[in-house]
Fold each of these.
Amino acid sequence: MDMLSSPPHPMTRTHRFYTYAAPSRFYALAGRLLPGLWLLAAGLAALGLYLAFFKAPTDATQGQAYRILFIHVPAAWLSMLLYLALAFWAAIGWAFKARMASLLARAIAPTGAGFTVIALLSGALWGQPSWGSWWVWDARLTSELILLFLYLGYLALVHAIEDPQRADPAGALLALVGVVNVPIIYFSVRWWNTLHQGASISLTAAPRMAETMLQALAVMSLACWAYAFAVIFTRARGLILERERDKAWVQALSKKGQAT
Amino acid sequence: MTWLLLQRELRLAMRRPVDAGLPVAFLLLAACLFPLGLGPEPEQLRRMAPGVLWVLALLASLLSLHSLYAADAQDGSLDQLLLPPHSAWRLAAVKALAHWLSHGLPLLLATPLLGLMYGMHSDSLGLLMLSLLLGTPSLSLLGNLAAALTLGLRNGALLNLLIVLPLSVPVLIFGSGAVGALEAGLPVDGHLSLLAALLIGALLALPAATAAALRIALI
Amino acid sequence: MSMASPCLLSAEQLSCERGGRTLFQELSVQLNAGDIVWLQGSNGSGKSTLLRTLAGLRPAERGSIQHSAALRFLGHSNGLKPDLTVLEGLRFQARWQGLADDEASLLQALKHFGLAPMRSRRSAQLSQGQQRRAALASLALPQAGACWLLDEPFDALDDDSVKQLCALLSSHAAAGGAVLFTSHQHLPGLASRQLPLSGGRP
């Protein structure tokens, strides 16, 4: 796309979804959505943290320490879902030679890895009061750790290959192999953990979580989603500018930036 | 054609006996380090043996990966091998087989010596060898994929490790778990069946993925 | 160009990109029996990429390629395994490409490029020029009507070998084959046609 695109009118429903397969249009759309996303993330996070730390009841066995789960659980969910999203967009990019889809996958990867790290750190914080050590080989934590290595493998591969024409499909293939393996890895790690009677971190006893706990979890999850969208869109815009820097619309944009 | 390819691979491997011997040498050397680091108590060594030997087998089989396709890419013979109408799938399968024959099999044959060093009982050792027999081909297939993905890249060897190790966790768990189960008096059938299932899955899916990776690498 | 010559390779509206740069667009190439075409262009103009794309080693971004003849490709590098002897390498190439692999034919091909005395030496022990000739030796095996895509075949060759290769290319074309080659040297009288690549549209 080497012409300046005028952003489509928001009220026009005739635009098809794959209009945004053009980097220039995605750039414009993401730019418009970003302020709202950041606000949403901040608002939801504030609400969620309030619910988590002030409104949710104290756990019978774990006391106050369990509250870290309101960060750990959404982070873990997101780390998993973002890996699926990464594999999905990378596969679309490979199958349809859609540059924007591959770019999106690349934008997702660091955020997914980041959430995995948050899940690991918060998991360690959770385990510390219960087990007295900063790391326990809990099945879920160990799976998270392996997921982190899967993310790092993807990032290392796509950054090691200079030519995006080769990097994008290679990354897509690796991500797909990874996605297929994630259930296998998770199953084997669970097997390994039960076999060796390893430590386990979870909420004990209560068959049903208190309603406020669930609310807090839901809000925190949504906050993480909004944050993830915001960060990924920001990164995607940066990647678009970098990749399309020879195109006319990018150069016109930079000239406009220099003029103001 | 398949036999022609396999013949070529094996002949090339035999012309470089040092390359084929290095993983075994690494295995023996590294296996000596654990007793030195952890102490020579026989009971501790016997308990550690399956896990340690499995991890070392995993690492040793990864050592020789970077040269799997790199040499062919560098001297230009990879182009000839992938020229249409030749099948990339067949090349990937033959490369994996040749890699296992020249690296996995020697590892397997060196295991009794290591079992001796660690004071393993003969039935545990036998099971360890069976688990390696079922597991190391999967590792060769995984390594094959990684080598094709990282073809020609500067940090190929380290990248291969980063790519293969997470994916090989299930094989490692079931492989060393089988021997652990035997020593705990638990049934081992589950472990062995899962290893076999992983091998079948790898045989079905990985050569095709490797073929795709090879075509991508030629872009 | 005789209209009666069968078309061995035809490419329409080919477009190739490398590293984000468009090397050429809407390029059409046709190789008929008897053609010897000299692919010209400065460094980086996409000659190697075009040859590789025509050979089927890499996909074209746009366009289609059809061929009715067997394709032989020789790249910049020789495609020789350093640990195999010249004869072993040639025998593998012959079998791999489905050409005559009996000892007489192999020896004949080696003789064409003066490599018979070195047939039991490993490729790593040959000089650069000898290695290039060893790589070219498979072209001297009987193969009527094939389409040859050669990237810098005259590289590192001495004058005698250049003459031998020119003779081989001419006889191959005369027997109904076609050749598309790149070369930095000017070889008068060899090429029947030239194909310039100027980066962008031809």
Note: Helices of chain A lie at 23-55, 69-96, 99-131, 139-160, 164-195, 211-243, 248-259.
Amino acid sequence: MSSQRGAVLTGEHFMNGDVAAAEGALAAGCTFFAGYPITPATEVAERMAERLPDIGGTYIQMEDEIASMAAILGAAWGGRKSMTSTSGPGFSLMQENLGLGYMTETPCVLVNVQRGGPSTGLPTLVGQQDMMQARWGSHGDYEVIALAPNSPQECFDLTIAAFNLAETYRLPVLLMTDEVVGHMTEKVVIPEAGTIELAERPLSQATPDAYRPYEPQENLVPEMVTAGQGYRLHVTGLTHDERGYPAVVAPVQMRTVPRLVEKIRHNRDRILRYEEDGVEGADVVVVSYGITSRVALMAVEEARRRKLKVGFLRLIVAWPFPEERIRTLAAQVQGFVVPEINLGQMALEVERCAAGAAKTVLVPHAGGAVHDPQTIIAAIEEAHA
Amino acid sequence: MNDQGATTTAAAEQTTAPPVRRAKQHPKDRLLRGDRLPHIWCPTCGIGTCVNSFVEAIEETGIPEEKFAVVSGIGCTGRVAGYVRLDSFHTTHGRAIPFATGLHLGNPELKVIVFSGDGDLVAIGGNHLIHAARRNIDITVICVNNFIYGMTGGQLAPTTPHDARTTTSPHGNHEYPFTLPHLVASCGASYVARWTALHVRRMRRAMVEAIQHRGFSFIEVIAPCSTLYARKNRLGTGYDLMKFYHDNCDVRHGADTSELDIGFQSRIAVGKFVDCEKPTFLDRISAGRGGP
């Protein structure tokens, strides 16, 4: 029996990435979690089940991942900050309702602790194979925001960031972590509650008669209301006009769907986050994210000992992708090295943005383990040649 | 089928749309989105009748209208959410119940009503239906059962009676259909009733009871689909189906739900079969921590 604890566990802790993501959600004001057990994400749900009653929140274990995703959308319209967590197979099942979330502009957070696939694949072992599914997994056109933590501390910090982005831009935000980061136990420092910056969804002050649920503000994001406030709003996955009414015709599609894309592209500079080290003057830049960035850093340090000029670029926000930065670097370097635990996903983005100005060397890994740093060093040498 | 009446763009409304001639206001206009009418349902479809009973039931409960939220899935009945002037959510196919579960738990002061069809709730959404009943989640599910997929043009449903013809059972349905009251009652639903679109007053009464009921309440409404079900099975018009209900329904309150099967053009047992009190999902949570 645990004692009653507040939402923010200020202090230094020793916890794994999954638990840290759950604590990040609580610190961000999440009071609703719906999920379905799946390795290696189960610890997120377990922590939420244990902790949410402490703070008057609600936990429900749904019958599957489809229901979990639907439930967090419903809870968001009930006024809550809501979250679910899953891994590959469950992520696949969530895609349709993720699309409903993008279409209806519903703020919420989905944690995907990636494992090796396809299919049941490697339930207990690492993968980074859902990066393109995160971008394109649901049908239709939309833009996503996906963050890629590389430590338990970042699982905490970036889950808060994910909620802030979800609330600010009104969409489901993805925390694309992985089995190693999820199950790795490290020190996590949780700050004082008052020092954590939180964003809240833009709430409309308009009268019910004047309120138009899908009329965008200047930043292209519409103001929200929640059910039960007397607005009698209509929310639909059909293409809809500014009133929220179905309008299944090309002219409305042609302004509604581009806005879903533009509200992210237009605000891209405020969303993008990456970390760089020794990029200026480098001949080769290693681009990595998640657990692979920690192995890549070892390889970069070893290559520098061998007198190679190697830069390090870590994606903290994987989607939207830092296109301009890669274009700029492509004009300065001979090549990019992209190690990732898949057979080439984010490397395609690097290659697209490099557009032939610099070569892109993929360091693939089919999953189940992290890279051997030697394979990355070999790729750095290849990119120099 | 289209939503032409509602799809004129704002710009078009200002410049090219002819002035709208308003008919005399319908007595239920306050609860319907008049600006979205005409609706998409076919002449003699039973769904409109169910909506009429539903808005009357809302008034009869005396519960403030802003406390209601209607959630629908996809299909003909799935369009109900778009026509009621309440907080309303038109979700994905089969997922109205889990969305409604989240909405209810997100704000337990809401009266959350799932209004959808048999294909949506029982075929693709069947898993959610049985689990919501099992949890005794405090929501109301109104399932309009017309024995067929209407929106997609008349395909086989898990409620299609044995031997009935649909576009995907052209030689007659070889499958056994679900008996919906039996299904949800056996899973733990604490209020279960079945009426037809003919029984408008009893349907309304059942809706009032279901809305006021604490726990998972379920109403099956057998409704005519003349365009597809009646035509494919040479049963005449919607009027003929209503006449059939008139002549072939037996009111059997409290009947054993295992005896409520519906065969092709068989007699139909209607009534209230389950109405019991038991703690809801949220009651169980607020009862506090249990276990050894």
Note: The longest strand of chain A covers residues 108-116.
Amino acid sequence: MRIAVCAPQVPFIRGGAEIVGDDLVEELRKRGHEAELVTVPFKWYPSERVLTQAFLWRLLDLEEADGAPIDLLIATKFPSYAVRHPNKVVWLLHQFRQAYELDRTDLGQFDESPEQRALRREVHRLDRLSLGEAKRLFAISQNVADRLESSTGLVAEVLPPPPQELPYRCDEYGDFVLSVGRIDRAKRVELLLEALAADSSLRCVIAGEGPDRERLERLARARGLDGRARFAGRVSEEELADLYARCLAVYYAPVDEDFGLVPYEAFLAEKPVVTTTDAGGPLEVVRDHTTGLVVEPTPAALAEACAWLAGHLDSAREWGRAGKIEAERISWDHTVERLLA
Amino acid sequence: MKVAYYSPLPPERSGIADYSALLLPALARRIEVAVARRGSRRAPRGTDLALYHVGNDPEHHWWIVEALRKRPGVVVLHDFVLHHLVAGMTLGRNEGAGYLDAMQREAGAVGRMLAHGVIDGLLPPVWEHRAHEFPLTGEVLPFASGVIVHSRYAEKRVREHGYAGPVWRIPHPAWPAPMELPAAGLPSGHFVVGAFGHLNRAKRLPQLLEAFALLRERVPKALLLLVGPLAPGFEPELQEGVIHHGYVDEQRLSSLLAATDVSVSLRYPTMGETSGVVVRALGLGRPLVVSDVGWFADLPDEVAVKVPVGDDEVEVLADTLEGLVRDPARRQAMGTAARTLAEGEHELERVAEAYTAALEEAAGGEAIRDVLTAEVAAAAAETGLRTGGEALGEIAERLREVGRGR
């Protein structure tokens, strides 16, 4: 089958969504399909731009390529699902969150002017139309499916993406908590730094790049965390596997996250995950005192949880292994089978 | 966003007043609402948009239409047919010329001649029997920057009337089911058929009374409960087994409605309205029998049996009621489906959210209408694409698909 996987790209930025897109194409090819990733750059500001950038997708003709039909189109996140295709399947990573649950929060984008409010509603309208056209709808987590249903009334089957392939292993339960992911405000790395400031016995390694890194480095210096908080920047797959192998636990607590591959990666390295009660998607797999710790989103609560794990390595090991069993259940065989069903 | 809100409100005795009393608190939790005082000619200060609740009763709505004509805004069209309203605002003020002009705008020379006939006493008033043929909705729609309707039926009529602006279909909100209701005080052991609201010919009361008489012959334990004021000059003979209450307050209305085994809401002709009584009955899980017209015909078959208007109406109605008497399982299923519907698309918070979306789209819609087309047009001009060419034709088609075409 000829399959086009559609995903927007933000030039120079790479995160979980990009990994999912690449992996899907690779897994489809492994199974004998002719698969290609189709991307268009996406710039979402100023707010007026959201509509025109989405409309670019609408103008694409992906019914065939070089004279041969494209049998199936799998669109992933906003605005790639605005594309037209007679056999459009959407595997929803997320909608344009600034127009939904992030609206009127620090992470929102639309102000209170009538024009901006109306623009936000335009995004809703476009979603209802373009997602409503899909032959089948999947969402990467229950959290994303719930948001979709409450905002558009559309129902999606939950289909989590398997984590990226790394040489996962567990060497030890070391002396640092690991944070993995793009460093922006929504990922809430700041909370981890504040936890370190609250408990001088804690150490962390922050792997990843992003627009919030400079600010966080300044914050770490201001809190006197030099030496205890290390910003590792973008790391290779081997380095990442090594960090997972050696850490005590993995911290992952974005605000109302869509899904989050990081907990699954942590589990595959047999590490427990520390998250917060408002983290959204991760709460579907991180269960308190079963596969990790779920705490209030405060520095004191997070510091206490990390320190507790450092003093209870048996629990850390037990919960990490319980997580591994859960993570191993998610396979590309199942995911591809459902997407092509 | 701040919205000027024009509507009749309690203690005015109007279904739309009750509607607004229900909706306003939920809406005010989402947007700033400035409620206009009845009769006020000035819009509340500092508002971005005005919302006008328009119904067919001139007594409750004249001042709202006058305000709308001064400052266009979003119109909630509770009735599609506004003949009675327009007649009241013209003939009711001895302004025959206004009525003549409205009828002419509606139906040309024929409309004007008909209006002359009415004014001169040569023809019966149009609003009594033929209002649905001359809805006079055109007296309001040109001032609407957007229209909110409650039903597919009304939406279709608005479009057929040539209205090209935005139309939002927002279901009538359901009243939250009361925790506990006082006893209705009806005789026990009877099968109670209820009919609620203003009681007049358009509610098919003569047909209902006739059908009830047939039912009573077959089911002697049947009772007909009529609740609501009788229309002036309408004095039907109420036979044995018929109980009539005039106007009752909200709580009493709920008690009586909850005590019915079947709630009957017949209508013809329809003014394109939604029935607050039917929505209340849904919330209380009552099985419904309705006329197969307008909004009533849009109700799902699971909650309402629809009786066609026409020659067999009385017989079909009697058979339907008898069928429901003898099938408690069906009544039970209909009641459950009714509750589900009320708690679904008619749920108050969902309706308030839909209002907020519509108002936000209306308030800023004009300013952003051309955001997309302007940028596409600029890009086309820069690259030398010409109007009428194939490439622009395709772009226009895609724009239409996303609702931005012209």
Note: Chain A is about 40% helix and 15% strand.
Amino acid sequence: MSGDHSDIVKRLSTVSGLLLIVLVVVMLVGISIGSSGSGVTSLWHIITDPDHADPMLLTIIWKLRLPRVLLAALVGAALSLGGLVFQALLRNPLAEPYILGISGGSAIGAILGILLGLSQFPGITLTSFAGSLTTLLLIIGISAGQSILQKNALLLSGVMVNAFCSAVIMFLVSMTHDARLHNIIFWLMGDLSMGSLQHTGILAMALIPCFVIIFWFSNTMNLMLMGKEMALSMGVNIKRATVILLVTTSLMVSACVSQCGLIGLVGLVIPHLFRLMLGSDHRILFPACVLGGGAYMVACDLLARAIPQHGEMPAGVITALIGAPLFIYLLKRSGR
Amino acid sequence: MKHAITLENIQYSYGRALVLRDITFSVTPGDFFIVIGPNGSGKTTLMKLIAGIAQPDTGMLEILDRPIHSYSRKILARQIAFVPQSVPIDFPFSVKEVVLMGRSPYQGVLGLETKEDIKKMQQAITFTSMTHLADRKMNQLSGGECQRAFIARAICQEPSVLLLDEPTASLDLSHQIRIMDLMEKLKAEKQITIVMVSHDVNLAAMYGNRLLLLDKGRIAEIGPPREVLTYQNLERSYGCTLLVDKNPLGDVPRVTLVPGKFVPK
Amino acid sequence: MRYLLILLLIIQGTIVSLPAWAQNVHVTDLLGRRMAIPKDPVRVVSLAPNITEIVYALGQSHRLVGATTYSDYPAEADMLPKVGSYVHLDLERIVFLAPDLCLAIKDGNPIAAISRLESIGIPVYAVDPRDLESVMDTLSRIGRLLQADKQAKQLVQGMRRRIQAVESLVAKTDHRPGLFFQIGISPIVSVGTNTFIHELIVQAGARNLAEGDIPYPRFSKEQVLGMSPDVIIVTSMARKAVFEKIRQDWYQWTNLPAVKNDRIYFKDSGLFDRPSPRLVDALEILVRLIHPEMFKEPS
């Protein structure tokens, strides 16, 4: 049976296999580098000679670096997928995972949580999630007058709601004068450092079903990109697919944002990057975005930790500093 | 099977505007059925209704002698293939990928193509003379080549009926002929019923065996070209002076536009 | 099998960083958390610059193995290994130093970081030095934690004496000049009622012209002119050249009492920007600037 599908299955396995290797390598580098020093060689020693491993290093790796690297991979995968799905659903290359009011709503939710003095988990995570759900419902409500398939309605309401939320955020920030201002700013810049293994596990449990659903619809996304008429005439239930993908992806992105803040540009750049390299077939782009996006995020987080002398840069700065020029370079290379 | 497509008392409105009414006709299997009429007469809407993309307010619509709503979307797609007037090309696929998508009514949700699917894709590409363009991206093709790719995709659906909405609009003359000849080849070699909307009455005359003149949402005339393409029918529907004579290439009418300076006072 | 060994080592590793059982005391910090810490902590990490100052003031700097950046007073503190900043702690560096006690600021260090440290088995004791009174309380608390009760007592008594001296000096006069205390140059920012600087200003016998609900209110030049301050004190981390420019700036407004009487002063912000034992020094400096007439030698 799989011999019959050998062509597409072969391509899927090749892409997945290669990117999986990249991801694992990057993750290993990620857990062997940190602000307390140590290098790849010490990691090698731990694996080959566990009896004499330094317990301090083990604690650091197990409790601090590993959760962080896993979280980065998970968030990178989810945000890249979010961008992929929204670009397909809205048929717009500028779409990114936060476009449907998720950035605005979750930020306001998080800021309110911070101002109320709630703890990161579950307090702020929940308020942030609630915030993004609110704006999502608002946007669906606004654009429901037109059919949900009218992509421009969704897009425009999303942009407007985000703009309004930005104003509210600036207001809240200007009214805050104490230490909570720091917390707000760090949240807005995105922060991968505060996850524990437990939190990352909970997030994974929320995200993995979303990944499965999105993969299930990956071919449907191909068909939907042919336009509403052609997709319908080829047997696609567009309305059902759109609603399911919209809700699933929004929940997926909201979950990430409420845990880690607003890490930008990953969801915009990675799908385009892999589309330039691998073509537009979303069945192939799915593992590319999951594995490649995850690897990219881990690498960016690594650089964010390793480069500065003191302290660390927000991961979102690196994703932008690297992502944008890289994309421009690939665009020129593809001769368009 | 008596009829490929049957419509009876079909009515369709968009908002408060009545777009189509009292539409009753049938298409025989093997027909080259061409719908003509001025802009806004409801031709595209009629195509969408037959393709199952829009639903009529009232009336009966049967495909292959079964009511259209008795088909699931996927099964319907195995009987009817639709080539719309325009297709967005935001994220370009290659010609091969687009044509392969035509197999989706026969595939599972992930659309994992079998060797059989790939063979049919290649056959469709050969049939439409696209072999040398098979690996190009859609946005690198000309209008005519794009159209052939979409027709190849439709062929992959292995339909009984092929619906096309103005397939030759905005194509240059050679491509227009190529597309129309392709339709004839499909009709002859694969026994596919062709139902088409055309803005070019002469092409319709030369290729169609039955024409439908649609005017303000109503059937103005239906039948073989020489019955439909009379200057009374055409002048009434199109609202301009026309000269209708016999086409020197065959026993079909030829319609010529008459510029104002030639109209006798 | 290898995996089991690694797991055992991790467990052992976390236990190693916990203080040994027998020599613990149970304490409750200012966040209301009960914890067990060593009686005699020898690897202490300070998570804020003013805590570092306090530990040095108590003479217990030998216990410190790390501090946050900007722990720059006294000068030796700058040599301590840095563990990130007060708002963005570098957890890895902290864990690497294997501390047996961390000292944090309540409502200052991010609570998430503190929880993470505790989940790794490092006790974190939170204090709350906000103003003169709480600084003294913090001195006592940390003194108790670090076996320095006697030094703490001495320091606190010394501070109280000096504060008392200032208060009795101020009590001798009814004159309360209007003071505009400028902590931000552009935009102009002053201090509201809920700040320790306000408390110092009042104790030093002046009226804080910016008092009000907003802790760090912004003013336009015009608004400050409207207040007609008798004294203007500007603190910042800027260089002398900037001070000169600001002085020229204010001196255009010749109607200001502060300008007429040449009472615009510039002070390095180091003394005024953190609630540390040096607040008493700040207080003494303030009273000299505000009431110079009390310090004139009788001729």
Note: The first helix of chain A runs from residue 6 to 32.
